[in-house]
């Protein structure tokens, strides 16, 4: 994770965050994911600054960012057709992280089932994903 000035990047100046995610499922997760927080967005930057002892507003912001990051990761996983229930990836790879996230958020559902549901009803799947990440719930 990094806090940067989006005004000095190709990201929209007014965006609060951006999750960069690599395409190589065999690559190490730590080198494949990067959450960028826009320092120009005071609400998001402050929420991360206070993450150890968040205020109520920080909890809401962190929940939104967590939910959006999970959505991006799940959508990325379902986009990779080489990612499936019968495929295994090395420990700490992006492929294993995405597979684990799918099974954590949707226990009992195969990746192929998730992909089919997303393809058949994208808006319903988006709501299912929102429910799975428990957006706005403080854990």
Commentary on this structure:
- This protein is mostly helical and 139 residues long.
- It has one domain.
- It has helices at residues 29-32, 42-49, 56-79, 94-105, 111-120, 122-132, and strands at residues 2-4, 17-21, 33-38.
- A three-stranded mixed sheet has the order 1-3-2.
- Helix 2 packs across helix 3 (56-79), helix 3 packs across helix 4 and helix 5 packs across helix 6.
- The two termini are 21 Å apart.
- The model has no long low-confidence stretch (mean pLDDT 93).
Number of helices: 6
In angstroms, what is the radius of gyration? 16 Å
Task: Indicate the proportion of strand residues.
Answer: 5-15%
- Helix fraction, binned, reads 40-55%
List keywords for this structure.
6 helices; about 140 residues; single chain; 3-stranded mixed β-sheet; 3 strands; mainly alpha
Please give the structural blueprint.
Elements: E1 2-4, E2 17-21, H1 29-32, E3 33-38, H2 42-49, H3 56-79, H4 94-105, H5 111-120, H6 122-132
Parallel strand pairs: 1-3
Antiparallel strand pairs: 2-3
Helix pairs in contact: 2-3, 3-4, 5-6
Short synopsis of the structure:
50% of the residues lie in helices and 10% in strands. It is mostly helical and 139 residues long. Strands 1-3-2 form a 3-stranded mixed sheet.
């Amino acid at each position: 994770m990094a806090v940067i000035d989006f005004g000095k990047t190709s990201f929209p100046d007014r965006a609060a965050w951006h999750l960069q995610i690599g395409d190589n499922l065999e690559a190490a997760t730590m080198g494949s994911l990067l959450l960028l927080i826009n320092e120009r967005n005071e609400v998001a930057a402050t929420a991360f600054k206070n993450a150890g002892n968040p205020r109520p507003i920080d909890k809401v912001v962190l929940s939104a960012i967590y939910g959006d990051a999970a959505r991006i990761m799940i959508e990325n996983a379902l986009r990779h057709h080489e990612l499936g229930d019968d495929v295994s990836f090395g420990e700490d790879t992006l492929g294993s992280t995405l597979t684990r996230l799918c099974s954590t958020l949707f226990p009992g559902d195969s990746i192929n089932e998730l992909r089919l549901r997303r393809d058949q009803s994208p808006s319903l799947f988006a709501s299912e994903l929102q429910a799975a990440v428990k957006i706005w719930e403080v854990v």
